[in-house]
Design brief:
- It is a single chain.
- By secondary structure, the protein is α+β, with helices and mostly antiparallel strands.
- The chain folds into 3 domains: 193 residues, Rossmann fold, CATH 3.40.50; 85 residues, Beta Barrel (Elongation Factor Tu (Ef-tu), domain 3); 92 residues, Translation factors (Elongation Factor Tu (Ef-tu), domain 3), CATH 2.40.30.10.
- It is built from 7 helices and 25 strands.
- The strands form 5 sheets. Strands 8, 9, 10, 12, 13, 14, 16 and 17 form an 8-stranded antiparallel β-sheet that branches. Strands 2-3-4-1-5-6-7 form a 7-stranded mixed β-sheet, with helices on both faces.
- The radius of gyration is 23 Å and the shape is globular.
- The termini are far apart.
- The protein binds guanosine-5'-diphosphate (GDP) and magnesium ion (MG).
- The site of magnesium ion (MG) has 4 residues, from helix 1.
- GO terms for molecular function: GTP binding; GTPase activity; translation elongation factor activity.
- May play an important regulatory role in cell growth and in the bacterial response to nutrient deprivation.
- This is Elongation factor Tu.
Length: 393
């Protein structure tokens, strides 16, 4: 049997527009075909607890799985608006694409806009719209108007509003009669749209090699070995690499051996913990916090913009807001760099529990790319969690 490609998706949209009902309906319709296991609306609505990678932010979210003929979908549904903000910023579950729910009765609302903006900012690359509750709207013209409004909004937030698939339907009717062809048609249309509008995600192993350096060893008679967990790509003996970050000088070298637990490997892939023996770099020329990367694949950066979730007191975060000029530590991978912040917005203030936009100037350059995630720490505790939305210098 061929293994189906895994694709991560989720429901986003304003409260009460039907995200959880749709999630349950997707499971029921696919379960009727033997392509999912049913989970009740109540169970999905409860949400499980996930923590972000830095083990700092607690997010309520339900994970469900269903398949189509071609793909296996891992789907996330969050109970509350703040859970979406946290999830999208911290990447507790990253989405290759999202289903934006819009109630045909209400049209786009405040949280519709907020989720769209976040999806744009943090790089949810593809959207499909489900115009829900069409069973409550008799006037076909009204549906057309709502669809137009949604398409304009998509364009406003930088998505291709003219071409994004918009499926009209009723999650509730599909949920209540999953085997009824008329009721389940909208779900089948939605699944077809997911299969076609979201391209296969690029797998981590297919990206350029990158490994954050965790440790540096000097081995008598052999040279310098750097260790870490490969974040993306593949490394082989003979590969041209560079050592990047913390200083303005980038060191070029060649990996002469890849090993894991004293065993020599032919290659190391994303996810593996490895040691790389370097041809000529001395152990005092390479440090924890730098990255080992395919030559020419990363650039040193000092300035970026980010979306940040500021942890609440109960989450171990600050008790008080911070303001423009706040200068905490930024943790990117294994690097720990001081950065000066500018809080975007009129208030120029970030309250615990808020999602905010920051402009950051790092005191030392590191490898930073759009989509990279980081933690903000102060006095040894994590006070924020963020994602790079734009690299500016
Ligand atoms: P969420 O907050 O976006 O997850 O919304 P829910 O899925 O909890 O739905 C909110 C309410 O809308 C619930 O009472 C649902 O039964 C109802 N609802 C959801 N989808 C539909 C639909 O297609 N038609 C109708 N009439 N009601 C719906
Ligand atoms: Mg819900």
């Amino acid at each position: 049997m061929v293994t189906k490609r895994n694709v991560n998706v989720g429901t986003i949209g304003h409260i009460d527009h039907g995200k959880t009902t749709l999630t349950a309906a997707l499971l029921r319709v696919q379960a009727a075909k033997g392509l999912a296991k049913v989970k009740s609306y109540q169970d999905i609505a409860k949400g499980g607890i996930v923590r972000d990678k830095g083990k700092t932010v607690t997010i309520l979210a339900s994970h469900v799985r269903y398949e189509t003929e071609n793909r296996a979908y891992a789907h996330i549904d969050c109970p509350g608006h703040v859970d979406y903000i946290k999830n999208m910023i911290t990447g507790a579950a990253q989405m290759d694409g999202a289903v934006l729910l819009v109630s045909a009765v209400d049209g786009p609302m405040s949280q519709t806009r907020e989720h769209l903006l976040l999806a744009r900012q943090i790089g949810v690359p593809h959207l499909v719209v489900f115009m829900n509750k069409c069973d409550l709207v008799e006037d076909a013209e009204l549906l057309t108007l709502v669809e137009l409004e949604v398409r304009e909004l998509l364009t406003h937030y930088g998505f291709p509003g003219d071409t994004v698939p918009v499926i009209r339907g009723s999650a509730k009717l599909a949920h209540d009669a999953p085997s009824d062809p008329a009721a389940s048609r909208c779900i089948n249309e939605l699944l077809h749209a997911l299969d076609t509008a979201i391209p296969d995600p690029v797998r981590q192993v297919d990206k350029p090699f990158l490994m954050p350096i965790e440790n540096v060893f000097s081995i008598a008679g052999r040279g310098t070995v750097v260790t870490g967990k490969i974040e993306q790509g593949t490394v082989r003996s003979g590969d041209a690499i560079e050592i990047v970050g913390l200083t303005d000088q980038t060191v070029s070298d060649v990996v002469t051996q890849v090993e894991s637990f004293a065993e020599v490997l032919e290659s190391g892939e994303a996810g593996a913990n490895v040691g790389c023996l370097l041809r000529k770099t001395r152990h005092d020329q390479v440090h924890k916090g730098q990255v080992l990367a395919a030559r020419g694949s990363v650039t040193l950066r000092r300035q970026f913009e980010a979306e940040v979730y500021v942890l609440k007191k109960e989450e171990g975060g600050r008790h008080t807001p911070f303001f423009d000029g706040y200068t905490p530590q930024f943790f990117f991978r294994t690097a720990n760099v001081t950065g000066k912040t500018h809080v975007v917005g009129d208030a120029a203030m970030a309250l615990p529990g808020d999602g905010v936009q920051l402009q950051v100037d790092l005191l030392q350059p590191i490898a930073v790319s759009q989509g990279d995630r980081f933690a903000i720490r102060e006095g040894g505790k994590t006070v924020g969690s963020g994602v790079v939305t734009k690299v500016t210098a």
